[in-house]
Amino acid sequence: MSVDTASVLRPASEADLSEAIREASAPIAIRGGGTRPVGRPLPGAVLETGAMSGITLYEPGALTLVARAGTPLAEVEVALAAEGQRLPFEPMDYRGLLGTMGTPTLGGMVAANASGPRRVVAGACRDSLIGVRFVDGMGTVVKNGGRVMKNVTGYDLVKLLAGSWGTLGVLSEVSFKLLPRPESAATLVWQGLDAAQAVALMSAALGTPYEVNGAAHLPDGRTLLRIEGFTRSVAYRANELAVALARFGRSVTLDREETATLWDAVRDVAPFHGREGDVWRLSVKPSDAPALAAKAGGEALFDWGGGLVWLLLPQGTDLRAKLGAFSGHATLIRASLDTRRTIPPFQPEPAPIAALTRGLRQKFDPRGILNPGLME
């Protein structure tokens, strides 16, 4: 998040965090690792959560992890990999796309509901989140959910915090359910399909019994399908999938190492790294995606079988004005400060939803000091 002052608060504990918010008399810009400057530029002192770090509970047998919000994501991934496990939702790393440094944290990941290609089968970050602790705008510590998958107390509030971008509360601790890491993986690649053909292929693939868990179409014309699991099963399913989709042309199969590298690039929207232009994130029905991408112009990367479209457009483009009315939402992810002040980065909400949103923020942050205006 961009801020207009160098004043920085760095609470080292949940108690410090509560005190800092309780004593605040002006807006606070919440920052985890500083890797996702998305939304309206913010005034006020920066509050960093990175000092509240560390894994507090990890039970591999129960597929459960609890950690403080400032814990680096990389630290968690190393701990999980040592036990042959992973976060199910493949969280995106925004640094390459946004040109930021910093260290991605668990709290920032949850606040952004950061989710990658595997969302088509594993769900989003919020779907793996089973518990949170956070401090609201009055400095009150709130606990919701639990530390085991069976505990669903307050589940709706747990999910509400994911994707709220720090406007409802500042996370201090998060709990996740986990999944085992697969033994093997493969990617089937088709060349030369247009967007409509690619979406048709991806939709067909996701409807097969072969457990495709990644479906993307890149700006260079490659269409990708990923399969993971036991080695023999992956080989069998990859062959059967190639036969089932032979009407779209011949495919090439990549091995596990090539698959990992390629899907990291899809996850992080690597084709748009270091390039001039604004980046928009368009969430739509896959069947609508090709026509909307064509109308938008620029370059497009399709993920989630076409349900997510990343667009690289000329600077200052108002994508919503260009598309007109459509079913879905468009988020301005990368743009200059002036553009983010002029064009609402987040999709404006219909009046009834906007009223609910205002009510929630009034409940959790009655003083309006937590990232005020960020999502407006």
Supply the key terms.
Uridine Diphospho-n-acetylenolpyruvylglucosamine Reductase, domain 3; Alpha-Beta Plaits; five-stranded antiparallel beta sheet; four-stranded antiparallel beta sheet; disordered N terminus
Question: Any overview of this molecule?
Answer:
It is globular, with a radius of gyration of 21 Å. The chain has a five-stranded antiparallel beta sheet with strand order 4-5-9-7-8. It starts with 7 loop residues before the first strand and ends in a 12-residue tail after the last helix. The chain is built from 14 helices and 18 strands. Helices cover 31% and strands 25% of the residues. With 376 residues, it is of the alpha+beta class.
CATH fold-level name of the largest domain: Uridine Diphospho-n-acetylenolpyruvylglucosamine Reductase, domain 3
**Largest sheet strand order:** 4-5-9-7-8
How many strand elements?
18
What helical percentage do the residues reach? 25-40%
Rg over C-alpha atoms, rounded to the nearest angstrom: 21 Å
Task: Compute the number of helices.
Answer: 14
Assembly classification: single chain
Mean pLDDT across all amino acids = 94
Count of all domains: 3
Low-confidence stretches: 1-6, 149-155
| Overall spatial form | globular
**Estimated share of beta-strand residues:** 25-35%
Largest sheet composition: 5 strands, antiparallel
Q: What is the distance, rounded to the nearest whole angstrom, between the alpha carbons of the first and last residues?
A: 14 Å
